[in-house]
């Protein structure tokens, strides 16, 4: 490929994707809202752009083969805050992709699009939307937008319903963990698979306790290798008995399923900021 555009390049997950994406294209254009993202790789450029501003997104995607769309507010917030970057921003990415003839968008969706399903249900990629927050609702919107733009305008999309891509620091993550190596593998497969149409795949490692089923996305060839079971004994020994009446313990969305709308779900997850620096 000639050009890949990565949104959310300043984020933690974006930091792990920049170098692998460069290996798949002649040029990587990274973008986010910060003034700069530090040292750039060879053949990488950085453009500051606001996802909520279509006039800034349109030229960014000119000549791109694919967009890896990881830019958004990454936590629950009031709807008015989510609306710009997560909802209008998603529309702007798909509309700019269509106008520029971009073939495919690889989208960082989330388990929170289906977060209110009980964790005791082993759900597949065809599970109906059941968002747990405004954040999850925005993921539902973007997935439906992706489906619409495939059906009506021929823009392919692979929606990665990421469960929890961070160090394993809590009991939920023993099932929901996506390692950085498996994240990279997943994105590479979403890009390199010859034909995808509109597809949904769960972003989760090969965990013994993974609560979701990727069987219907097997054509992507995503075969994760890491397993959070290696952390299970230590995590469970440090975790008090879980309250079965707490939706955060009983639903796929974890704490996002139990917080009041507009309040942070990430605050309860003990996320370690181990952003990659080159």
From TrEMBL:
Query: Which regions span the lipid bilayer?
Result: none
Q: Which residues form the NAD-dependent epimerase/dehydratase domain?
A: 4-162
- Pfam families tied to this protein: Epimerase
Under InterPro entries, the record lists: Epimerase_deHydtase, NAD(P)-bd_dom_sf
What keywords appear on the UniProt entry?
Answer: NAD, Oxidoreductase
Keyword field contains Oxidoreductase? yes
> Where along the sequence do coiled-coil regions lie?
none
> What family does the Swiss-Prot or TrEMBL record give for this protein?
Belongs to the NAD(P)-dependent epimerase/dehydratase family.
Protein's UniProt name: NAD-dependent epimerase/dehydratase family protein
């Amino acid at each position: 490929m000639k050009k890949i555009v990565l949104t959310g390049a300043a984020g933690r997950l974006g930091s792990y994707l920049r170098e692998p994406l460069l290996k798949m294209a002649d040029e990587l254009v990274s973008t986010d809202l910060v003034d700069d993202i530090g040292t750039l790789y060879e053949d990488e450029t950085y453009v500051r752009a606001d996802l909520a501003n279509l006039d800034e997104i349109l030229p960014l995607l000119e000549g791109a083969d694919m967009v890896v769309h990881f830019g958004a507010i990454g936590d629950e917030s009031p709807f008015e805050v989510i609306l710009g970057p997560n909802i209008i921003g998603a529309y702007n990415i798909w509309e700019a992709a269509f106008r520029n003839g971009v073939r495919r968008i690889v989208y960082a969706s989330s388990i929170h699009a289906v977060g209110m399903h009980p964790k005791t249900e082993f759900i597949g990629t065809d599970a109906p939307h059941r968002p747990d927050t405004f954040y999850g609702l925005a993921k539902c919107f973007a997935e439906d937008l992706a489906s619409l733009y495939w059906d009506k305008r021929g823009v392919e999309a692979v929606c990665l319903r990421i469960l929890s891509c961070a160090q394993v620091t809590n009991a939920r993550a023993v099932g929901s963990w996506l390692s950085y190596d498996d994240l990279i593998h997943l994105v590479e497969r979403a890009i390199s698979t010859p034909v995808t149409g509109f597809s949904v795949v769960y972003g989760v490692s090969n965990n013994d306790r993974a609560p979701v089923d990727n069987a219907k996305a097997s054509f992507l060839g995503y075969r994760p290798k890491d397993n959070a079971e290696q952390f299970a004994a230590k995590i469970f020994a440090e975790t008090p008995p879980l309250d079965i009446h707490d939706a955060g313990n009983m639903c796929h969305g974890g704490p996002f399923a139990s917080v009041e709308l507009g309040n942070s779900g990430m605050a309860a997850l003990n996320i370690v900021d181990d952003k990659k620096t080159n």
